[in-house]
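Lecture notes, unit on binding sites. The following record was shown on slide 14. It pairs a sequence with geranylgeranyl diphosphate.
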Amino acid sequence: MDALKQAMASAAVDVEATLQKVMESEDEPERRLFDSMRYAALGGGKRLRPFLVMQGAGLFSVSRKSARRAAAAIELVHCYSLVHDDLPAMDDDDLRRGKPTVHKAFDEATAILAGDALLTLAFEVLSHPDTHSNPEVRCMLVAALARAAGAHGMVGGQMIDLAAADREMDIGEITRLQRLKTGALIGFACEAGAILGQAGEPQHEALRGYAHDLGLAFQIADDLLDVEGTAEEVGKAVGKDADQGKATFVSILGPERARDQATMLVEQAAAHLAIFDEKADFLRKVAQYIVERRS
Ligand code: GRG
């Protein structure tokens, strides 16, 4: 296994353990809710956002425990978004991370509650003193994640996406949609370490620039996988964008130009990290991995 994959696997193990701990079983009657939360959040996914948190935290000598908790919080929000996005009222998907979606394995009402509980648990985790000894830092983390996940970020992007279903969008509109829908959470993942490490503005600025380009490259790769990947590889239905007549980077630019654009964004992302030493090497490498991945 190469060093990047090893580091990603190690971050995934760390975050899995923290997720297990914060979702410990309850007795009946809430047990079903905890089962559905664990089903949604444990044992799957690339854990990319947690990896970004851990690597960002590594730039500022943040304790592994703090980084793990922030990483778990962002993964909880990500998992909630997947559960709700898969619901019949949204994307209506049966397969996620290679297994039946939460509303298929449980039921719709339970899936809604599981998403609600995962989202709120993220803020409980961040605001706990174990995440950081300084309450001001915890408050900054909570505010930044709330902004990234809410109407000014992911949920706002999802609304634009729904509203765009019946009309053409140009490349500028798609870029804005994706910056909110997937970019905002990736942005928080990249900056969380700087918040935990109480880094200076130039460091925040560099990580924001990196995250911006990384988020777009990630989305282009996701669009390409929807066209070129198989359900077996990606663990979810493919070909959905075309079936729904959705405008994407790939439908507008074509696969070749989209791939070129992603490669250019990866180079640009790495350039933002010039102010950091070799501690940022995995962040440089993961940008490349993101566009080459097959899942
Ligand atoms: C429903 C509130 C709400 C928001 C939904 C992010 C999102 C907004 C929906 C997810 C649906 C989706 C497929 C978005 C495209 C990009 C994306 C977030 C893919 C999934 O992320 P990965 O590839 O997934 O990191 P894993 O499973 O590896 O964690």
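Take-home: The chain has one domain: 2-292.
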